[in-house]
Write a structure and sequence with these properties.
The protein is mainly beta and about 450 residues long. About 10% of the residues lie in helices and about 45% in strands. Strand 16 and strand 17 (about 245) form a beta hairpin. The protein is globular, with a radius of gyration of 21 Å.
C-alpha cells in the first residue's frame, strides 16, 4: 500500500513492527560539530554524527531497507544518487518522494542497481539559506557490489570532497577572478572559506599511508554544493577504471582528475614514487583553503611535497570508445540560460528552453525507446547535469562523437554542447537538473514523464 511506503509514524504499533522487521541500515540526520583542523570547528548537519556519513555496502539486485530519522528542525529527504529505483523511494520531492518532517522517520525500500560507486545525499532545497541542503555534511558513499572486477589492489580508499562556510559574494568578484576584462554583473555567487577531503583540511588528521609497490583503489566523490575541482598527486598517475560507478571502455592513466559536482571517479594508483606527497587541488588557492590530503609512504619523512603536473585538458573522449553511437528514436534539444535576478531576488533565475522550474513543460518519453538529449549551454557557467533514476551514455561533446561512456552526471562547459543517450527503461516521474545547488534552487530543473 502507498500509505505504508510513506512516512512511518512513531506509534507503538509501528515501533513493534519495526523491531520485528529490522532495517539493513539506520541513518540519523542531526546537527553535528566537525573539527576540520585544530581550532576550526564547523557547525553542520550530518548522518549518524559523522562526515562523510557511513559507507553503505549493498548487493546489486538484493532488496534493502534504510530507516532515516530526522533530528533537525527542518524537513529533509535522502536521494539515492545513481540508482535505477522507483520515483517514490528515489528521494526527490519533485518526483513525489515524501519529505521527512522534523522529528519524523521514513523507511526507504529499494532494490539497488546498477552496481558501482553510488552515493547518497540530501535533496532538500537550500535557496538563500546556506546552512541547509547540499551545503551541509549530508553525504556518503553507497557501494553497490556485484559489478566489474577492479583487479588486484592492496588498499581501498574513499575520498569525498566538500567546501565549508559558504557565503554569497558578488558575481562580479567571481568573474574578475576568471577574467580581468569581465563586465560588472548583477547577482550573487557562492564562495567558501574552507575545503576538506573527508573530514579534514589538508595537513590535519591522519595521512593516507601506503607502501612502495602497492596498488591503491581510490573512490573519489565531489560532494561540494557548487564547486567543480581538478585533483593531482605529483609523481603518480590515476588509471581511471570507472566514472560515476560505471566501467569505462578505455581505462587509461592520467596525471590529473576533473570532478564536477556530484561526479565520481574510481582509479587505480601504482605507488611507485616514495615520499610524502599532497593529493590535492591543482589550484594553490584551493589547497590553501584545505582541499587536499597527505599521502605518506612507509618510512618517508619530511614536509608534504607538491609540484604542478603537466597541464592537460580534461576530455571525456579519452575514456570512451571512438565508435559512433546508434541513432536515437527521438531527440530533445535543451538550451540553458540565466536571465538574471527576477522578482527582486539577488540570484539569477535559470531557464531550460526559456522556461524555469516550476513553470516548465515536462519532457515526455515512451518506455523502451532510445532518446538523445542535446544540452546546449548558453551561459558562462559550467553545468553538471544529472538525470535521476537512469544511466545515460555520453555520445558527443562539441563536435567530437563517441560512445560507451556511461554516467549519471555530465559537465557541460560554458558555451559548449553535450549529447547524452538513454533508454527509457524505468517508468515514473524523473528529475533532470543542474547539480550546482544555486542553479537548481533557482529554476534549473525539469521533469521527464513516461506516457503511453
Amino acid at each position: 500500500m502507498l500509505a505504508d511506503q510513506l512516512l512511518a509514524h512513531a506509534t507503538p504499533a509501528w515501533a513493534a513492527k519495526r523491531a520485528a522487521d529490522k532495517a539493513h541500515y539506520v541513518l540519523r540526520i542531526a546537527p553535528c560539530k566537525l573539527e576540520i583542523a585544530p581550532g576550526i570547528v564547523i557547525d553542520t548537519v550530518g548522518y549518524n554524527g559523522q562526515v562523510p556519513g557511513p559507507i553503505l555496502r549493498v548487493r546489486e539486485g538484493v532488496p534493502v531497507t534504510v530507516d532515516v530519522t530526522n533530528k533537525t528542525a527542518n524537513a529533509d529527504i535522502v536521494h539515492w544518487h545513481g540508482l535505477a529505483i522507483d520515483s517514490l523511494n528515489d528521494g526527490a520531492m519533485e518526483e513525489g518522494s515524501p519529505m521527512i518532517p522534523a522529528g519524523g522517520t521514513l523507511r526507504y525500500h529499494f532494490t539497488p542497481r546498477p552496481a558501482g560507486t553510488r552515493w547518497y545525499h540530501t535533496h532538500a532545497a537550500a535557496g538563500a539559506n546556506l546552512a541547509i541542503g547540499t551545503y551541509t555534511g549530508q553525504f556518503g558513499f553507497l557501494m553497490v557490489e556485484g559489478g566489474q572486477d577492479s583487479g588486484h589492489y592492496d588498499q581501498e580508499i574513499f575520498l569525498a570532497i566538500h567546501h565549508w562556510e559558504p557565503s554569497f559574494v558578488p558575481m562580479a568578484e567571481t568573474m574578475r577572478e576568471a577574467s580581468a576584462n569581465a563586465p560588472l554583473t548583477p547577482g550573487s555567487d557562492v564562495g567558501y572559506k574552507y575545503a576538506t577531503i573527508n573530514q579534514h583540511m589538508l595537513g590535519a588528521g591522519e595521512p593516507v599511508r601506503v607502501k612502495r609497490g602497492q596498488r591503491v583503489l581510490m573512490h573519489l566523490l565531489n560532494a561540494s554544493g557548487t564547486e567543480n575541482v581538478v585533483l593531482a598527486l605529483p609523481g603518480h598517475t590515476f588509471k581511471v577504471i570507472a566514472m560515476d560507478g560505471n566501467p569505462v571502455p578505455n581505462p587509461i592513466a592520467v596525471e590529473s582528475l576533473s570532478l564536477a559536482v556530484a561526479e565520481r571517479i574510481d582509479a587505480i594508483i601504482e605507488m611507485n614514487a616514495p615520499g610524502v606527497w599532497i593529493l590535492g587541488s591543482m589550484l594553490a588557492k584551493s589547497r590553501a583553503m584545505g582541499l587536499g590530503i597527505v599521502v605518506e609512504y612507509a618510512g618517508a619523512t619530511g614536509a608534504p611535497a607538491w609540484h604542478d603536473p603537466s597541464p592537460t585538458e580534461w576530455d571525456y573522449l579519452q575514456f570512451a570508445s571512438p565508435a559512433k553511437a546508434p541513432e536515437p528514436d527521438e531527440t530533445f534539444t535543451l538550451t540553458f540560460r540565466d536571465i538574471g535576478p527576477m522578482n527582486g531576488s539577488q540570484f539569477d533565475t535559470w531557464t531550460i528552453n526559456n522556461q524555469s522550474w516550476p513553470r516548465i513543460d515536462p519532457l515526455h518519453v515512451r518506455q523502451g525507446r532510445r532518446y538523445r538529449m542535446i544540452f546546449r549551454n548558453g551561459s558562462g557557467d559550467q553545468h553538471p547535469m544529472h538525470l535521476h533514476r537512469h544511466t545515460f551514455e555520453v555520445t558527443r561533446v562539441g563536435t567530437k562523437e563517441f560512445s560507451g561512456l556511461r554516467k549519471d552526471v555530465v559537465n557541460v562547459m560554458p558555451l559548449d554542447s553535450v549529447a547524452v543517450d538513454f533508454v527509457a527503461d524505468n517508468p515514473g516521474d524523473t528529475l533532470l537538473h543542474c547539480h550546482q545547488a544555486l542553479h537548481m534552487d533557482y529554476g534549473f530543473m525539469q521533469l521527464m514523464k513516461y506516457v503511453g
